[in-house]
Structure formats: C-alpha cells, structure tokens
Design goal:
The chain has 6 helices and 7 strands. By secondary structure, the protein is an alpha/beta fold.
C-alpha cells in the first residue's frame, strides 16, 4: 500500500506539473509580469493536487514580516517542495538558482523568462559579480530576491555552512534580509520516491535590517 500510494501521488503531482507547463506555453510569449501570473495559476493547481492527492498541507506563519518592495529572502532548503511554493509566499521573486536548471525542457524556459537569477556555481568571482548585478536590477524593480543560503537541499537535522552568496548580496543590496524557516524535510525528504502525509510549517521570521557588519 505505501508503494501504491507513493506511485499515485508522484503520477498525479508530476503529471499535473507537466500538464500545466504545456497548457500555459502561450504565456511564454507574454511580457514577464504576465508570465508570472500564469506561473501562479500553475503553482496553485499543483498545490491543490499535492493537498488532495498526497495529503500534504501547510501553514504559513509571519507573512506580515515581509517588507514591501525589495528585500533579500534567505529560505531554508530541505526539499523540492518549497521550490513549488516560493511564488505563493513572496510576490514576484527573483530566485537565485543553479544555471543547470534552465536546461530542463520547457520548465527551464519558465524559470528563465520569469526573471530568475541563474548562477554558474563553478564560475568563481565572475559568477558572483553576475549574480550581484542581476540582483541589483531586480531590487531596482522592487522585487524580492530569494536565495537558498546552503546552496543545495539539506536534510532535516543536518548542518552545512552557508555559501558566500547570501552575505555578498546582503552587503551589496542594502535591503532587509528576511529568513524563512520550514520543516518540509519531515514529509518530503531529499531524493526520495516516498512522501508522507502530514502538515508542514513555514515561518517567515522578522527581517534583519540592512547595513549590519558581517561579523560582530
């Protein structure tokens, strides 16, 4: 039974993702903001399937902590789950992601044209400078910049040092830094076929004001 349930959920969840990405293909020809509106529809449909086919619900706490306008959002990354939710929590985000994701057929086009910030993780200083320049452009448009500070999914309970990107963006952008904590790894562990039923808690924490020193 657990295997059949997991098979059913994966087929419906990823099937809905595929169907929506195909149905909304005309939006790829629209201006970026119109495309983002289509992405919201896509993600709401996927969230509905996730809740009703997978039994996974969630609670978002602290939405009032998100400032208006540009900010830097540092989100914990335990699972694939939160990548389908960022747009539902943060309006029109510019998401820092690894460049390889743009090579995913069709879905990569949505990522690119919706205004993400791809980074070549082997690109060194040049890649960092490109990320900062792109983030400054997004901030000038009053968009939040979202980054996963560890740079990869980290299992619940594991610890990895934060990459230098989040500190560089905080210093260069001069905007509030908003942490997001979550426990999605409890139900949707990294690289697993089996997802558990249950409730995920997401908390947007109070913003850290801009301009603080890197170390005290």
């Amino acid at each position: 039974m657990p295997y059949l349930r997991a098979l059913w959920f994966n087929l419906t969840f990823y099937g809905a993702t595929l169907v929506m990405s195909v149905l909304l293909m005309p939006s790829l020809l629209l201006p970026r903001k119109r495309l983002v509106q289509a992405v919201y529809i896509w993600l709401w449909v996927v969230a509905w399937v996730e809740k009703h086919a997978g039994g996974i619900s969630y609670q978002l706490i602290g939405r009032e902590n998100l400032p208006q306008g540009a900010c830097l959002v540092a989100c914990k990354h335990q699972s694939e789950w939160e990548t389908f939710k960022i747009h539902l929590w943060v309006h029109d985000p510019a998401i820092v992601l690894k460049r390889e994701l743009l090579n995913i057929p069709l879905i990569g086009s949505y990522m690119k044209l919706s205004g993400s910030i791809p980074i070549d993780r082997s690109g060194g200083v040049q890649a960092m400078e490109g990320m900062i320049d792109a983030a400054k452009k997004a901030a000038a448009e009053c968009r939040p910049i979202v980054i996963f500070p560890e740079g990869t999914r980290v299992a619940l309970g594991d610890r990895r040092p934060y990459k230098s990107g989040v500190a560089a963006l905080y210093q260069e952008l001069n905007v509030p830094l908003v942490p997001i904590a979550l426990n999605s790894g409890l139900l949707w562990p990294k690289n697993t076929f089996f997802k558990k039923k249950g409730h995920i808690t997401v908390e947007i924490l109070p913003p850290i004001p801009p301009g603080l020193p890197a170390r005290k």
